[in-house]
Amino acid sequence: MLTQNNHIPTILIIGAGPGGLLLYHGIQKHLNKNMKKFNVKIFERDLGPQDRWQGYNIGLNPHGIKSLIFCLPESLVARLPEVIPNPIHEKEYHGIIHRDHKGTEIFRTPPTRFKSLFEIAMSTYPSIISYRDRLRDLMLEDVNVQWGKKCIGYDEFGDEIWAIFQDGTKVKGDILIGCDGIHSSIRRQKLPHLQIFDYGITQVLIDVTPNKKLMDRIIALNGNVLVQKSFGQDGDTTFSLMRLIPIETDITENTPDDKIHYRISLCYTYYTHWDTRNKNINVNDNDPQSVIDHIKTVIKQHREPCELTDILLELVSIAPVSPPKDYEKTFYRTYNPPKRRPIQDINPMSIEPWESTRVTLLGDAIHAMNPFLGFGTNNALQDAESLVKYFSNYEKYGYKSCIQEYENEMRIRSSRDVLESRENCLTQNLPKEYNF
């Protein structure tokens, strides 16, 4: 899009997560298709695509899938089943099961039947479990990410915006979009009064590869339900996401059970004061084995002995505590050391509407959410779709109107999901005499 000075506006995207990457693709697909209307540059603080762990599993709901289909080029849309595998008929139950601390079933969501992720996009079905790392790999295709560029702030001068990077460089643009996560330096500068809300709850997220022997025990307890939650009597919780698709692709009927593996993402949460008020706690978050030993101790202290507890302890025990050696077979693209992390969120409606400028925010940078309902990534994808649609009016109405319309829509939508997720998390972490 040429301005009166034959100037093609430049959009600077800070952060190459799902939201930033989808925004890049959406602009190229819809706004630069017939004539180049925008220059787009995308920057990422990681040193490369495998520099940091991207996680095994995430849930994508109909809103997120619709945004992927809208923004991604047709060539990548056709390959989405590679990273969001279609359900295995009569084998996978795409729903949620809830159990108490003894492993007794409380309830499960009604069964749903669908053949592909494209069916989900046209429905109100629940989430389908996707491989986050593979999704990111797919979205990185044909994107010229500038790696090793950590943005620490920006300067505005009239019609220009300059992104400032930790390496001392600056890049000029017309619009700056911060997709740089919950600790966004761009948000801190633009909206210093928008605060992070801390739940007083600690989470430990681990990604493990149980073999078929252990997976058979999990299925025997929970059936073939892919999202599993449990609630301790003292307020600790677990939830896990899995697919019943083996990692290995060369399995035969003679393959031993201990040579067949699956992916599970497991999150264990508990009250932070269980650690802070106990003077005998000695955990080093820079020592993964120390974290694993501590979590096993907490589980034993707050869970009754039963099959569910035994399975939880085994899953925690097989979490890797060191990077794999070069000669070792590993299912992990990179190494993710277990750490204790606070559960936090950001509600963009907790402050009055701000003046829209050349700087805006997307995803966790403006509306971080807890993982309990899986809304976070889906909202980031919706942000990208929304921005692309509003930028289609850039030439007619100018940047300020487009960004203002986007921010108005984004604030209402994401705030609703932040608060729903917050209520869900705080309720589920109540001691059970106050809950069930």
From TrEMBL:
Keywords: FAD, Flavoprotein, Membrane, Monooxygenase, Oxidoreductase, Transmembrane, Transmembrane helix
Residue ranges annotated for the FAD-binding domain, each copy included: 343-413
UniProt cross-references to Gene3D superfamilies, sorted A to Z: FAD/NAD(P)-binding domain
Transmembrane segments: 6-27
GO MF terms, alphabetically ordered: FAD binding; monooxygenase activity
InterPro entries, alphabetized: FAD-bd, FAD/NAD-bd_sf
Source organism superkingdom: Eukaryota
PANTHER family linked: FAD-BINDING DOMAIN-CONTAINING PROTEIN (PTHR47178:SF6), MONOOXYGENASE, FAD-BINDING (PTHR47178)
Protein name: FAD-binding domain-containing protein
